[in-house]
Queue: 4 jobs
Job 1
Amino acid sequence: MKKIIFRLTLPLTLISFGIITKWSYGIAIDAKDVFFYGFPMIYKCEGFHTSLSTQYFLIEMTINLLTYFAFCLIITLTLNRIWKINISKRISKIFWIVYAVLFLGFAYLSNDLDDRYSIKRDFEIKIFDSGITIFGIHSTDREKYQTEYKNWNGK
């Protein structure tokens, strides 16, 4: 069981967490209209304080990560009952080394771009549209939402 968790479930969780998520377009009350990311809770959006920055909300991110982990654990345990899964130690080590390098690169860029990390999201939002994104690829056409935003904002 421990082998399956460390060699398959955790890597699958981290990969799926980074690749597949939900996007939402909305407005942060008393701020601007932005794209929000996260499933089941919003854990990331662009920063309001400076361009090219991102805001991360740690409680929401932890809940999302635990949700992804539970889902991946159920999948791996179910598959392990049908077929015996055996991930070699070498493949597991390669994954963790690549993950560590990518994580350190992300941490460096996050510091360089002045990203913000908050314990909890401290602003209200109004969502206009949402969908699923893979690799962060989705339509970013804000013009189709401008009429809804103007109607909601009273302008």
Job 2
Amino acid sequence: MLARKNRSALFNEQYFTNKFWDIILLLYSHEINDLPIDSSAIAKQLEMSRTSVLRYLTALVNDDIVCAYDLKEEDCFDLARDNLSLTRRGFENAGIIVEQTRKIFSTIPAI
């Protein structure tokens, strides 16, 4: 499937096998709607422990997928307390995958 190959080129394949993708989609949705969200709200919405969310977020920050929502690049941010956002790369790549998925489902004939 071409969409699966394309997504592997945009994100680490491991992101699609666990809660990484849920977090990315939640951040993507909040960013599109210009709504800030922090790690506590992510944990609550995804029904996960905050400790687990912070582990996932740390990996996403290290992979340049997540950053601070409203701080300048040179500012330090507290992953546990500050509002979060996708980096430009994270946002654009998530958007590509969402659009590819939308195309797949829009071509399925109605029952």
Job 3
Amino acid sequence: MTNLKQALSLGCTGALAIFIAFYFALPPWVLFIAWVSYHLFGTNLKTAFTILIQQLFGILIAMLIQYTGACLSAFIGAFGFPLAVFIAMIGVFYISKLKRLNTIPAYFLGLTTWFSSGFEIAVQSLFILILSLVLGYCIAALDTFLHNKLAAKK
């Protein structure tokens, strides 16, 4: 019976994520990227926060790549974006040497989130992605909390 309750809990939190995303016109896949990140990198709030920060840095880096790549492309053509990525990845490598910012996959999830969004560089775009990630982490934490509570009732 506990497994059924946990399955229903997962279904309800997933449905809640989609409802919130649709209601607020947020990209639902970003909520699920956050949910997966929460489970991949550790299911505690401290770890989730540091991963979220790194994903946000990844989004900002992607925006910088997009802007810099467009500018460089005006001067050096097809090599503009690869050069922008090359420079940014060197920066990511060195940032990842810091104690709390050392999870390179989190940066790449942020890069993926930005480039997959298809958004233009704007504060509103950044706000939408940040809100989506934060909500995804919150729903993942809620799901984990419910799962643990139901497991404890065995």
Job 4
Amino acid sequence: MADMDRWSINESLLQSYRSIFISSQSFLLAVGAIVSGKSGVVLYATAAISLVMIWAIWFPVVRSRHLIVDYYKFGMMDFCDEDEYVNKRDVRDNANRQFKIGTNWRKTRKKLDLYTPILVSLVWVVLVIYEAYLAIKQ
């Protein structure tokens, strides 16, 4: 399989993972907003599930996928293997220097893969604090 084919497949997977994340988090946030003030247990459970999805699934999966995209985009196959590039920071940093890549966090990636999940997490924290405030107030 040609390197551009591998890049294209991995780029498509990355876009799909982002879409799945945004859709699932939008749904869960809607559920959280609807039950806020009505059912603390459902809100807390939904928030817990969402935060686990963000921090245990979203970040590791999307981060490794965008590193794989870079691996094929910049043609690093002769320099190191894919697993080393993704999992060994020193190998990745050395390869990036060879190919004059300052960082794997480009502007779009920061917005979609870093800022968006952090902002969604903050919305969950606000909803949970608000729910706790309502429970104390009663």
